[in-house]
From TrEMBL:
It comes from candidate division MSBL1 archaeon SCGC-AAA261O19. Pfam families: Mut7-C. Residues 1-152 form the Mut7-C RNAse domain. The lineage of its organism: Archaea, Methanobacteriati, Methanobacteriota, candidate division MSBL1. This is Mut7-C RNAse domain-containing protein.
Amino acid sequence: MKFIVDSMLGKLARWLRLAGQDVIYANDFPPTAESQDESLLLRAKEDYRILLTRDLELHRQAISRRLKSIYLEDDDVVNQLVEVSNHCEEDVRIDLTDSRCPVCNGELNQVGKEEVSGRVPENLLEEHEDFWICMDCGKIYWPGTHWETIAKIAEEYEEKLG
């Protein structure tokens, strides 16, 4: 699925990217119209994206233009993920082996430690076999301690999703 997310939902944008979804975040591109809202609406239409917003007026504008839009009231990212999944035709599943870059939305390629040698600290090469490189921004990821946090949130999400 393809989403466009307003500036109030940056955390959700990162989580959807971790779930492998193609997500444009409002703060990642300069406005191309007279306002950021108008830019979001135009981009949603051009790219056939679902608008995710906490702005009720923006949601209403999207609906009046016959665009797909989901208005999210909850502040909690887990509840937001559940709500998005409930509104979409397919479930949003968090699978770290099929993620996108949470920073830039680029595709991630899994590589061995030989590919990142000299680009990450030596101790990481000794501790890990697998790494992921963003094909757009070049950021390198590995299964560090932050993966435990991600796994806990993913588990909470799966439990709430049912």
